[in-house]
């Protein structure tokens, strides 16, 4: 448990409280990545009627990878992509930019679910990451990619055992990982809170997420994908052998549909009970001065995560701002998604407290941006797939906070499912299996809030899990951002 949390610890020092208040005073309530002068103009909305071989719904990574790969597999295929707002405005443009090879939300979670299949899933995950890097290079996507790996740090003694176990698993799967003691961890990044760490050097790359989305859209256009933004699909119906999708000002008739709509209500209604929106929050500092950088080190520029159930993730941007997010995971009754939820001052204050506890050397630094976003959380923490309308429609969702890399894999799965053929991917038990659905309200919020409360208590009690969490563990269920 983090010692300073003004919501639970009235003893927060007056000095720290003042530092926090000052640090947030000028922050813009907007996403750092999307606040970019190179942000491209939107494509024209769909108007009138048209036809296509494949319609992709959603202009985040899921949709963009699906459209791009569809064209690469078959350049003659006529592909239309419909995005309700603008390319990358949602999770894809506002995430932490940790692009991981893991397809299972980490090795430990994958081993819980599909132990026998993990060697294959790890291999596919590596191939997937290599495919992403290949596309970034082939299309010269300027997404500030850095191959620095991920450093996971322990800030409580009990977390050292977890880190050692994870290190062994990494070695078993052939990762290029090193286990670090407190001094070695602090030599990488200097925080008095660090007790040890593990640095997985080749399974995660860092990207500017919005630029990756915009670059993928450019690549799609280069290959001939017709992109329409501000084109929300309100209905999807079958007419004979074809599907018809309608937007406010147009419609498209198509053979096949791929849904990359993530946390938003699926056009396949039966998918909806499997995913809930959980809000995650992020902040960015002003650029660090040379002196501030020297004070914390971080010459390896790794992406960093700490090891509590409620964890923080953080990284440097290419111009040396620190992006700092995570910890709170907020669910709203009725699975509501609302732009008003993108800002949450009480969470930003707690995140700032934790930031200055981690880096007291940075006392006085200001946050310039605060934002949040909804994560498509499912009970097994990694994506699930399916089809509808007699195999004419496929979906991939449930990435649960680790979709920057895995969405490309999800796109391949959707295309394989739509082909109707049995392939290596469609035969995977993890692709054929499904998570447990969430119960309807009001039970849903009861379950989610009890789980959140239990997770916070576990962090306070040296990781000790209560009866509720143990029961969920027994059934392989959970709740995470
Ligand atoms: C704050 C935050 C931090 C994160 N950090 C990380 C991280 O560091 N690493 C990581 O791996 N993952 C992270 N994630 C998760 C990751 O961003 C997502 O898994 C990934 O972006 C999902 O991509 P997507 O295309 O499926 O969804 P989205 O990017 O949400 O795109 C879905 C799109 O579908 C559109 N849409 C929905 N319904 C319709 C409709 N009916 N008609 C037309 N369009 C529609 C939406 O407008 C939206 O643009 C984070 C997420 C958040 C919110």
Question: What's a concise summary of this model?
Answer:
The chain has helices at about 15-25, 60-75, 90-95, 105-115, 120-140, 160-170, 180-190, 210-220, 290-295, 345-360, 405-420, 425, 430, 445-460, 465-475, and strands at about 50-55, 80, 100, 150-155, 175-180, 195-200, 205, 225-230, 235-240, 240-245, 250-260, 275-285, 305, 310-315, 320-325, 365-375, 385-390, 395. The chain is globular. It starts with 13 loop residues before the first helix and ends in a 7-residue tail after the last helix.
Structural key phrases:
481 residues, binds flavin-adenine dinucleotide, eight-stranded mixed beta sheet, 18 strands, alpha/beta
What does this structure look like?
The protein is of the alpha/beta class and about 475 residues long. About 35% of the residues lie in helices and about 20% in strands. It contains 15 helices and 18 strands. Strands 1, 2, 8, 9, 10, 11, 17 and 18 form an eight-stranded mixed beta sheet that branches. An eight-stranded mixed beta sheet has the order 5-6-4-13-14-15-12-16, with helices on both faces. A two-stranded antiparallel ribbon has the order 3-7. The model has no long low-confidence stretch (mean pLDDT about 95). It binds flavin-adenine dinucleotide. Flavin-adenine dinucleotide (FAD) binds near residues 58, 97, 375 and 405.
